[in-house]
Design goal:
The complex is a heterotetramer, with two copies of chain A (259 residues) and two copies of chain B (302 residues). Chain A has 259 residues and is of the alpha/beta class. Chain A folds into two domains: 95 residues, Elongation Factor Tu (Ef-tu), domain 3 (Beta Barrel), CATH 2.40.30; 107 residues, 3-Layer(aba) Sandwich (Rossmann fold), CATH 3.40.50. Chain A contains five helices and 16 strands. Chain A has a seven-stranded antiparallel sheet. In chain A, strands 11-10-9-8-12-13-16 form a seven-stranded mixed sheet, sandwiched between helices. The longest helix of chain A has 13 residues. The two termini of chain A are 33 Å apart. Chain B is α/β, with parallel strands linked by helices. Chain B has one domain: TIM Barrel (Alpha-Beta Barrel). Chain B has nine helices and 16 strands. In chain B, the strands form four sheets. In chain B, strands 3-4-7-8-9-10-15-16 form an eight-stranded parallel beta barrel, surrounded by seven helices. In chain B, β12 and β13 form a beta hairpin. The longest helix of chain B is centred in the last third of the chain and has 15 residues. Classes of the chains: A alpha/beta (259), B alpha/beta (302). Chains B and C meet through β11, β13, α6 and α7 of B and β11, β13, α6 and α7 of C. The complex binds flavin-adenine dinucleotide (2 copies), flavin mononucleotide (FMN) (2 copies) and FE2/S2 (inorganic) cluster (2 copies). The site of one FE2/S2 (inorganic) cluster (FES) has 12 residues of chain D, from loops.
Chain lengths: 259, 302, 302, 259
């Protein structure tokens, strides 16, 4: 997939809860590049004195009808804070699309579970839409600390059934995603997962135990995002691989996770 | 349109702007984003005799106006380079220069010997300054004897252009540059990264798996410019300047300090097409100052 | 409220946060903006035997996350300090430490001898690392012999606490620290500024009247932390860490790397009350991590 | 005069021509410190990645009626650009008041000429008001490249007669301030001048030749602004003096200018 370094203009910046923002950006040249669910972009950060490098952010959604790229950003530090503070009309340079995304199952009868936590849900929205467009049966299992950390629920519901866990029980079942009752009630033939590492490991463990094909999306620290600097490597069965190029999505079979 | 051509020994560059080793992969990774044919040269990833897995993750952390890395020369070894990578990149219309590392002078020499027959590799850059590997690398770069031993061994077997990349982690970089010159280096490039470290105060652990790593980026530029100026005043061979070049102005600063050409490293991560912008800037700078060629500003500080 | 007290030899600090020489004047200049009595110590401006006019203007230029300076030890000389300045500042309730420079070991010793009787000056900091003067200063700081000669001369005449301030412009800073320790230094502080330069590309002239100057500020922090870690692992005397501390987190980073106390320099220009914020941060950090005293984190990197 | 490091809130940000902005700022604690005309402040710069230190800016006006500090800023580089881009409501930290300002003549019958060029006119407005309040006869002689670089003319007119030169002749007399006819027609017993160094030197030369008491305001590069770092020195008859502490206003008699 051809990569671009493109200027985007902020069309919309919606604060979700207090620590998240949904940015909708339009390419200045009007041409939204082709992208895969699970790929990410590298965003130039203006306006933060302490931020030097770009910041990697997942493609939350590519809206080809309106020509908009959606990014879901959590305030994790100075760089993401500056992103969240961007004003409508500001222009920002974005390198995209980067890495390899999720793979769709070959058999349409398979039912797919997309599960994630916190801001990790970001790439699942676009993957859900991709799967639904291809007539897969999609379910989402979204976890969060609390109700206010559950983002874009209405969007997710457009593409599949949504199950929820919260750690404080403020919405859905109380606990972690791996404790949700739907996992006992239904059979999924594929899981795609994105979120904090402990959560991904728990999901991977569940998938492995139940022999379910499972992909996870890693968030190793990155510099170039292009596979050039070898900073973001993950130790895999094929050696040190660049998460930004061979990933960020990996089948758990390739990882050396102790699960 | 000013004359941007410069020479590094027998090596002819269409302009003085190259990419720094380890920051630009093999060029391919940037092919969608930069017109590679416009570059003065591409310094490919550090290459060793045998394949190396590099250091464990985490390998990088951002610092004020810079970053620390601890990649540790991950590469597939020189033979893999020759058989797999070289064929893919050899037709890029620029100087493809291989950055070479080793654990002993013989190691360096052997890698260079194998690279010698490659028609489209007109030069090597001998890295005696990598702070991220225990053996080889920086140990050779911090003494005159160490530097001399590597240069001597390579010079015996390699008769194309040899650039020696110097370590900044020394008291007297000009002395090391002279040692390399005396043993027949065709040019020196400086600087490599500065040995640094950073600690995550919440976990109390170092950010890098190797504790220390190499500092690069804009933060090091004032020190790198000073070193280029000192070395350019101490040797007769051409100096290639690098360290924190973020834009055209910075590149001109290195040329004025005495560099004949420059390399751009970390800036590629922030703006992947920065090298093309730097080439355009230098052209424009020369025109604005009514100068005909890059040679007119090399060492041109008043 | 955690126990913030630390000792540097016989010197007792109420907390580990001091101000770096040359960046805080004589303290007075900041009196409206900081509660000076809260500080662990104030390192006053570099003082020499005779008055010095310093270098010509321009003496400073901003660089990425830092600045270059070429002040060149402008001061009125030790006798003026004793008669005019000391009386004005002696009652500030903190450790007032005089930073001493000289052109020869005897020079240093003579300044220290004159400071010895001053009741409210419990320590000197011997600056063998100023990059901005031709004679004295850095020349002593870049060899073990040079460092030893100054420390030896001062130790003969000065029996209060002697801190030796090291130059970072060396291949092996731990060796220099050991040389100072061997001659009886009570502590080492590091780092001083890094030798750097910057060129105004439009005028083609260096920004500083002296061409090169000393680089300070956040940009140097990763290198300074690495050096503090190396030195703390090489000597038994306390290490005072500095170089690019901008906030409380950065101060804790130096403590974890092995510093018993820290100094804050350039950050005072950006936030004149930053030192008080750093003291509060360390207190809060210790409480957050359920630790009782600063000693619990000195060298506490895991 | 006691110094403060105070948070100010941007109340008003007016673009003058395209390269200048007039910022009006209110102290968050409501207390505008006492200031002298000719003093300056050190402004924290947020939102510029390449700016590390504060930036020194003259007190353009201290409006004690509304409790507002006025700063007149020219877009000279990244730091001042970020200042000009500040939004109403933003908070910025300012250290003030710094240095020594202009001195008023002892004799009320003296007529005072305040002259400056470009953004250098900034401190003259407040000095004009100070002099007028003390019943001096004030004239302004303001120079600029072109009409569009003449700032705050209506403000200046409140405190004295305004004479103008522009290099392109688009307003007032064509040429430099030292060529204005008023200098031949009237006698001034004191001149205060602020602007680019060549202009200040020309004015100083005129003053010296005509034996008029003259003060100029220097803009040496600064770091601390407090007299602590000794970076900003000017070589004077009394040796190297800190412009930030002994100045920025100096009587030309103390300077070693070759005029
Ligand atoms: C492939 C990928 C996709 C991502 N997708 C999203 C997304 O859709 N939405 C979102 O909000 N965040 C996403 N992240 C995480 C996001 O990149 C980090 O939160 C961000 O880089 C932190 O920068 P900061 O300046 O705000 O915080 P910092 O102050 O730099 O750091 C805050 C925390 O983030 C970690 N961090 C810092 N830099 C990086 C980096 N370059 N990569 C990863 N972690 C880092 C630090 O270790 C620290 O724990 C993604 C990361 C990756 C690698
Ligand atoms: C006492 C004093 C009062 C001033 N009053 C005003 C004012 O009222 N309005 C106004 O617009 N400007 C004023 N200036 C000038 C203003 O401080 C500089 O234009 C500003 O610092 C430039 O910063 P920058 O980041 O925009 O540009 P930079 O990119 O940093 O530099 C642009 C140009 O400004 C010069 N410069 C950079 N830093 C400084 C510095 N710290 N001090 C002086 N010059 C510098 C550089 O040499 C360069 O030529 C004053 C300066 C001083 C010393
Ligand atoms: C991630 C990374 C990997 C690097 N790998 C190498 C290498 O393999 N060989 C080498 O000589 N230099 C290597 N370097 C050093 C750069 O080539 C360059 O000398 C240094 O980064 C300073 O330039 P910059 O500030 O423009 O990046 C590497 C630098 C970075 C950031
Ligand atoms: C303007 C300036 C003047 C300095 N003068 C001295 C000095 O007189 N003696 C000295 O030992 N160090 C001097 N230093 C070095 C500082 O004390 C300190 O070692 C250095 O700035 C690194 O710390 P920082 O990054 O926190 O500023 C000076 C630094 C600056 C910026
Ligand atoms: S971030 Fe550079 S290789 Fe992945
Ligand atoms: S700017 Fe520091 S003394 Fe003037």
């Amino acid at each position: 997939m051809k990569k671009f370094a493109k200027d985007f203009i902020v069309k919309d910046n919606v604060t979700l809860s207090s620590a998240y923002a949904l940015l909708r950006l339009a390419p200045v040249d009007g041409i939204l590049p082709e992208m895969q669910a699970g790929q990410f972009v590298q965003v130039e950060v203006k306006g933060s004195k302490t931020t030097y490098l770009r910041r990697p952010i997942s493609v939350n959604f590519a809206d080809y009808d309106d020509g908009l790229l959606w990014l879901l950003v959590r305030n994790a530090g100075d760089g993401t804070h500056a992103m969240i503070e961007m004003q409508v009309g500001e222009v920002v340079n974005i390198v995209l699309p980067l890495g390899h995304g999720f793979t769709s199952p070959s058999d349409k009868s398979e039912s797919v579970l997309l599960t994630g936590g916190g801001v990790g849900v970001a790439p699942l929205l676009f993957f859900g839409k991709t799967l639904k467009d291809a007539d897969f049966n999609v379910s989402f299992l979204l976890g969060a600390k609390s109700e206010k950390d559950l983002l874009e629920l209405d969007e997710f519901r457009k593409y599949g059934e949504v199950f929820i866990t919260t750690e404080d029980g403020s919405l859905g079942e109380r606990g972690f995603v791996t404790m949700h009752s739907v996992l006992k009630q239904r059979h999924f033939s594929k899981i795609a997962c994105c979120g904090p590492t402990p959560m991904m490991k728990a999901v991977a463990k569940y998938a492995k135990a139940n022999d379910i094909d499972c992909e996870v999306s890693l968030e190793n620290v990155m510099a170039c995002g292009l596979g050039a600097c070898l900073c973001c490597v993950e130790d895999t069965v094929d050696g040190n691989l660049c998460v930004c190029k061979e990933g960020p999505v990996f089948n758990i079979k390739r990882l050396k996770w102790q699960i | 349109m000013a004359d941007l051509r410069v020479n590094i020994g027998a090596l002819k560059l269409k302009n003085p702007v190259m990419t720094a080793s380890g920051t630009f992969g093999y060029g391919e990774e940037f092919a969608d984003l930069v017109n590679l044919d416009r570059l003065g040269g591409i310094l490919v990833k550090g290459t060793t005799l045998n394949a190396r897995e590099g250091n464990p993750y985490p390998r990088m952390v951002e610092t004020p106006s810079g970053m620390l890395n601890a990649v540790g020369l991950q590469n597939h070894g020189v033979d893999y380079f020759i058989s797999e990578i070289y064929p893919r990149i050899k037709d890029i219309d620029t100087n493809i220069i291989v950055n070479v590392s080793g654990a002993s002078p013989d190691d360096y020499a052997e890698v260079c010997r194998r690279l010698l027959p490659l028609e489209h590799i007109p030069a090597v850059e001998i890295n005696i300054s990598c702070p991220n590997v225990k053996q080889g690398g920086m140990a050779f770069g911090v003494t005159c004897e160490g530097a001399a031993s590597v240069v001597k061994a390579v010079r015996k077997v390699y008769d194309k252009t040899m650039i020696v990349k110097l370590s900044p982690n020394v008291t007297d970089i000009a002395a090391i540059a002279r040692a390399a010159e005396d043993e027949g280096a065709d040019a020196v490039s400086l600087t490599n990264t500065f040995l640094g470290m950073a600690i995550n105060t919440e976990t109390r652990r170092p950010y890098l798996s190797t504790i220390t790593g190499g500092l690069s980026g804009a933060c090091i530029r004032p020190i790198a410019v000073r070193m280029v100026w000192q070395v350019a005043n101490a040797v007769k061979i051409p100096v290639i300047g690098l360290g924190g070049i973020m834009n055209g102005r910075d590149a001109v600063e290195f040329l004025l300090a005495g560099a004949t050409a420059v390399q751009v490293g970390t800036a590629n991560f922030i703006d992947p097409s920065v090298t093309e912008k730097i080439i355009d800037y230098i052209d424009d700078y020369l025109n604005r100052h009514n100068l005909n060629s890059v040679a007119d500003i090399v060492g041109g500080m008043l």
